[in-house]
TrEMBL record:
This is Outer membrane lipid asymmetry maintenance protein MlaD. It comes from Noviherbaspirillum denitrificans. Pfam families: MlaD (PF02470). GO terms for molecular function: phospholipid binding; phospholipid transporter activity. Residues 39-116 form the Mce/MlaD domain. InterPro entries: ABC_MlaD, Mce/MlaD, MlaD_Phospholipid_Transporter.
Amino acid sequence: MQRKSIDMWVGLFVLLGAAALFFLAMKAGNMSSLSFEKTYPVITKFDNIGGLKPRAPVKSAGVVVGRVGAIKFDDKSYQAVVTLELENGYKFPKDTSAKILTSGLLGEQYIGLEAGGDTNNLVAGDRIKMTQSAVVLESLISQFLYSKAAEGKEGEK
């Protein structure tokens, strides 16, 4: 009887471990918030996408309204072309702007949408023309150091 009880507890522990690994894999793959809503594609272009990845959230006012569908490189304009898959339940004006933002100081990157004032809404295949690229921490630090070095040289003269 004792052997069956131990086997049952070990089996339960292994099952819980497998469930935890599955949850961790889904979280790491950004698949934990799957949505089966119908979506429509909207295209944006950015000079620099930083660490943005496919399946990253698209948010407006802090609410997830879609996901990043695909990321490609346009070798004519030398920009990243990002396809957003917005949920059909959310409509945005044609003059909506898109920014690449970061959750917290070093968190994941996502796209933030700011609605404009146009009376016509975006439809499948439309482009968002007003975009703001990701802020790259390394370039900010190098700009800061360069400006401090320039100030130091001016002070010596």
